[in-house]
Amino acid sequence: MDLPQLQFANQQGLESHCGLGQRQGSRHPETLSQCLLEAISGAVAMNFPIEIRSGVELPSVREEITLLAADGLTLVGELSLPAGRAPKATLVTLHPLPTHGGFMDSHILKKAANRLPELADIAVLRFNTRGTSSPRGTSEGAFGEGVTEQHDVAAAVAFAKKRGLPNIWLVGWSFGTELALKYGIFHEVVGAILLSPPLHRATDVEVARWGGSEKRLVILVPEFDDYLQPAEAAERFASVAHAELIGVDGAKHLWVGENATKRVLNEIVRAVQPDSYPLPESWQPEVL
Asked: H or E stretch including 152?
């Protein structure tokens, strides 16, 4: 189980206690480290709430995984599960365009893995599509322009099914939404959640297929998106009558900032695990 990286509601008091406001070099590093350990242990023991912010990693069970695509390529990824209990829903995440910096650790996807197993009992599967690298490693192959990646989507869903993970959803961001739209319709998933869909590769015919399906489609479109804004998105997705289109005021394509992150994660939870909606603003560690 991963231990959380902690940020306390009383962060100022912690900094004062450990001398974090003093000039650099005024405290010995070993003394400072010991102070922080004691403060953190004391906070957990006293059951202080931990504010959920950008760098917080809540408890989960992390497993490095490999996926085998139908064309023989091995893809690297990670599965994050709730600690000590079974998941109630599953996200198979599809990252942004790898030729423009997208990978399995793109911030919204990584924060989903850091928070949702603990806060919402959601399993989060992240992986690098073919030819994509991250600290986890590099997936074999080369970027396939969204064509050969159909095998990557199939491999990820097959892995989740083989592991018996429940209520599988695809969550695509930018380029990942193209993969979800083009190929998700052919897999046993509850539905797809699209974050900032550009609709560059998915055709009108491929979008319309979702209109003839019972699979759910939830679409988050930033007000100031670089590629597709809410009014045009309503036209482009008109063929899917049951789609839920959510225009997000003030947001941009990359969902920068904690407010944008919280909005995205809350909308994901509202769709896939509504009993855990809305997400809390802080986390209370268990006292053992």
From this structure: helix 150-162
Asked if 44 and 283 touch (Cβ cutoff 8 Å), the reply is no
Q: Reduced to 3 states, what is the DSSP secondary structure of residue 130?
A: coil
Q: Is residue 204 within 8 Å of residue 232, measured between CB atoms?
A: no
Residue 242 CB partners (closer than 8 Å, separation 6+): 211, 216, 217
Q: Where are the domains of the chain?
A: 11-51, 61-283
- The residue type of 217 is L
Q: In angstroms, rounded to a whole number, what is the distance separating the alpha carbons of residues 282 and 181?
A: 34
- List the helix and strand counts (H, then E) for the chain: 8, 12
What percent of the chain shows pLDDT beyond 90? 81
The count of C-alpha atoms lying within 13 angstroms of the C-alpha of 125, restricted to the half-sphere facing its C-beta, is 27
Given the DSSP bridges, would you call strands 168-173 and 191-195 parallel, antiparallel or unpaired?
parallel
61-283 under CATH 3.40.50.1820, yes or no: yes
Task: Evaluate whether 139 touches 129 at the Cβ level (below 8 Å).
Answer: yes
Query: Which parts of the chain register pLDDT below 70?
Result: 1-47, 287-288
Among residues 160, 218, 163, which one has the least CA distance to residue 189? 160
How far apart (Å, rounded) are the C-alpha atoms in residues 57 and 52?
9
Residue 157: name the closest of 171, 143, 168, 146 by CA: 168
